[in-house]
Amino acid sequence: MTLADWANFSQIVGSVAVIASLIFVGIQVHQNTKVTKATALQMNADYWLSYFAMLADSRLGEIFAKGAQGREKMESLEFHQFFILCRATFMGCEKQHQQYLAGLLSEDAYRGYEATIREQIAAFPGVRAMWHVVRHTYGHDFAAFLDAQIVGYEVHARGSIRSQWHEHVRAGGSTASGHPT
What we know:
- The protein is 77% helix and 0% strand.
- It has 181 residues and is mainly alpha-helical.
- It is elongated and about 95 Å long.
């Protein structure tokens, strides 16, 4: 073999090594993306679990219920606590919205998130009012998103979630939800 043959052979080996390296990097990037998405989903689940556990506390739950329903008779401290709870809600929602825009949440998970926003958060008059008070402190994309969740959707009738729950209990838990899938 001549020196030129060895040079050509080494170029072929080098090219194969580059291709193998690119395949390896591609696999690593794919695995890293999966881990990053799973981490984002877990962080969201952890956030909402701790948030709802906090609201399960009878005192904070009562304050949030008063504020969400828009009751005018709230003590100053209760209103301040409701304000903080709303800020925590909006901050969690904004973070989840940003993660979706960054491609870290699946379309399916995001559809459930949107329904939760419409039906369990933005559907209450007191929460809607608080959103209008603090809207300017959030990013433009998120503000437009939350505005869209509010516009065109009914405010909850008092006790509507509870009445829906009772309806399902009476039916033995077997009735359809009436919500699109």
